[in-house]
């Protein structure tokens, strides 16, 4: 899958650039041998000065900010540090949930292998996420997630604590979603196996709000990528 960096830019000024990161692409180069590049590598080909200001999990799509110079990088890094950047994610979760400004404040500890996290009240680092229900479907919910802190897998583990694991996130108890579970009349071709509606964790970084160099606040929205859009479309069509 060849990605043209210009095509994924959703905001650019003289100091910052925000892209709509495609799913299945790492933010930074992975430590292991070359596993198919990264957004950072594409960014550096476009402009060697670009530095990633934060990161998204490989499977997660959406708004990812880069700085074009050291002053801009410091400016944004300080906002992240002081929790002045608002990140809004959309997730499709298993089950029906009525969340209205629900805050989960549970400390997170990375597991030894570094690939997952758990809630640990004694050793974990503080972590907080706020959740709002956007739309309820038959057996599923579209949720807005606003992480206050920025821990690894924070949204995923916090949703799992609410018994609302993200669709197709087996690591934290999320089940895949099949069209046959939404559609009353569903015929599968003989000898074929039904594929899930989304082949990854159903999480998308919907928008990013921060202050640019002149102090003006901006909010950059990232449209749903194709797989997430198809999922929400099918839910709207058959799951209401």
TrEMBL record:
Entry keyword set: Isomerase
Pfam families in UniProt: PseudoU_synth_2
Q: Write down the EC number.
A: 5.4.99.24
SUPFAM superfamilies, A to Z: Pseudouridine synthase
UniProt domain Pseudouridine synthase RsuA/RluA-like: residue ranges = 15-160
- Keyword 4Fe-4S appears in the UniProt entry: no
* UniProt key word Isomerase: yes
One function term, GO molecular function aspect: 23S rRNA pseudouridine(955/2504/2580) synthase activity
Please tell me which top-level EC class this enzyme sits in. Answer: isomerase
Q: Where is the signal peptide?
A: none
Q: Which family does it belong to?
A: Belongs to the pseudouridine synthase RluA family.
Q: What's the protein name?
A: 23S rRNA pseudouridine955/2504/2580 synthase
């Amino acid at each position: 899958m060849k990605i043209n960096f210009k095509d994924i830019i959703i905001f650019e000024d003289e100091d910052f650039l925000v892209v709509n990161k495609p799913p299945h692409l790492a933010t930074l180069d992975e430590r292991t041998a070359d596993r198919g590049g990264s957004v950072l590598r594409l960014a550096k080909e476009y402009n060697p000065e670009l530095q990633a200001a934060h990161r998204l999990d490989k499977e997660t799509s959406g708004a990812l900010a880069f700085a074009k110079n050291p002053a801009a990088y410091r400016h944004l890094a300080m906002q992240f540090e002081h929790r002045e950047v608002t990140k809004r994610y959309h997730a499709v979760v298993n089950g029906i949930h009525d969340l209205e400004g629900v805050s989960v404040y549970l400390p997170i500890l990375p597991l030894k292998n570094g690939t997952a996290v758990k809630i640990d009240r004694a050793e974990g680092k503080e972590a907080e996420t706020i959740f709002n229900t956007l739309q309820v479907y038959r057996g599923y919910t579209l949720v807005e997630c606003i992480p206050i802190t920025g821990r690894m897998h924070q949204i995923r583990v916090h949703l799992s604590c609410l018994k609302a694991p993200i669709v197709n996130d087996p690591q934290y108890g999320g089940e895949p979603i099949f069209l046959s579970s939404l559609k009353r009349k569903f015929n599968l071709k003989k000898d074929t196996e039904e594929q899930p509606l989304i082949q990854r964790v159903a999480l998308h970084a919907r928008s990013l709000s921060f202050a640019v160099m002149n102090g003006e606040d901006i909010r950059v929205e990232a449209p749903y990528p194709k797989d997430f859009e198809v999922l929400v479309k099918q839910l709207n069509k058959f799951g209401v």
